[in-house]
Amino acid sequence: MSEPQVEELNGEVLDQSPREAVEAGEENSGLEAELTQLKGERDQMKDRLARLQAEFDNFRKRQVQEKQDARDYTITSTVEPFLGVMDNFQLALKADGTAEQLRSGVELILKQMEDALKGLNVVAVETIGSQFDPRVHEALGSIETVEFPDHQVMEEIRKGYKIREKLLRPALVRIASNSAQVAE
Known about the structure:
Number of strands: 8
CATH class of the largest domain: Alpha Beta
Oligomer: single chain
CATH superfamily of the largest domain: GrpE nucleotide exchange factor, coiled-coil domain
Distance between the termini: 127 Å
Number of domains: 2
Strand order of the largest sheet: 3-6-7
Strand content: 15-25%
Structural class: alpha+beta
CATH architecture of the largest domain: Alpha-Beta Complex
Shape: elongated
Number of helices: 3
Helix content: 55-70%
């Protein structure tokens, strides 16, 4: 078979010398090696992708749990100071005392409540004697007077509260209406 070999594939006849056949075989083995290498890289990439997806899923679950833990901690630290206040209200309801003793007890509970709010950085909005400020006061009416400056807060109907600089609710107030100052 020194003459060009004739191979028959699917009804086609190809002429190929032995040297060409060896070169084709080497090329095929090179392609097979490259294909094997690419399959290995593909498998490594699939494995890496699966690990990254699992890691991301674990991260997301951890974030959800940490968020829930932070929410629970916040609620716990907020509610805890008020549990003593509730206990004292329950004791006051069970107490048999005079009206003056009950009033004194309620004042102590109110003081305890104010202390609990201060512990959470909640403070009352300044009202009586200050100038009306629409950012922290809500006027429900006015009181005619010539003794006080116009728009000075004269009466507090409901306390307003701030947490640090953020307003939780405005104070409901009545303000002075000084017609002498308005005329000037």
